[in-house]
Amino acid sequence: MLSHANLLGNVADVADVLGMTPEDRLCIPVPFFYCFGSVLGTLLCVVGGTTMLPLAQFRPAEVLRTVQARCCKLLHGVPAMFIAELEEFRKGEYDTSSLKSGIMGGSPCPLEVMRAVTSIRLPTRLYLPVCRENSAAAAIMSCRAITGCPRQPSGS
């Protein structure tokens, strides 16, 4: 059963793994009616002291414009969202260099999508939900560790 203590403890751990700081900004295109949006979006920002930038609905161009204009450090989404963002990224000129991390989860993600996401400096963490009844985030690991993509040098 979920409790205040287990949700707060869970998001505190996730904030630590993501390296969240009060200076960071999280772009939240995932809906709040899912645990991903409400707990790993809004509650994560409250616990981490991070600025949240929720989007009313998912539009890939709007996500990338928000990341660029607001210098977002973190970005969340399900694999389908990241695939759409990758397609939009390739069509336009977007600066995603401010991103340092984020969460991709909600469904399995093909390895080639993880590689593509890390290659254009989109988030470098992977969220793997196992059982939402127990916790918002059951496991979190580096996409770079899974894909073998080298870490980008700072400033690139």
SSE order in H/E notation? HEHEHEHEHEEH
Low-confidence residue ranges: 151-156
The second-level CATH architecture is: 3-Layer(aba) Sandwich
For the largest beta sheet, what order do the strands appear in spatially? 2-1-3-4
Strand content: 5-15%
Figure out the total of helices: 6
User: How many individual β-strands?
Assistant: 6
- Main sheet summary: 4 strands, parallel
Structural class: alpha/beta
Q: Which outline best applies?
A: globular
Rounded to the nearest angstrom, the distance between the terminal CA atoms is 44 Å
CATH topology: Rossmann fold
How would you portray this structure in words?
Helices cover 43% and strands 14% of the residues. It is α/β, with parallel strands linked by helices and 156 residues long. It has a single domain (4-142), classed as Rossmann fold, CATH 3.40.50. A 4-stranded parallel β-sheet has the order 2-1-3-4, with helices on both faces. Strands 5-6 form a two-stranded antiparallel sheet. β1 (25-28), α2 and β2 (51-54) form a beta-alpha-beta unit. α1 (4-18) packs across α2 (35-48) and α3 (60-70) crosses α4. The longest helix is centred in the first third of the chain and has 15 residues, at 4-18. It starts with a helix and ends in a 9-residue tail after the last helix. The model is unreliable at 151-156 (pLDDT under 50).
Brief descriptors of the model:
156 residues; alpha/beta; Rossmann fold; four-stranded parallel β-sheet; two-stranded antiparallel sheet; 6 helices; 6 strands; 14% strand; globular; disordered C terminus
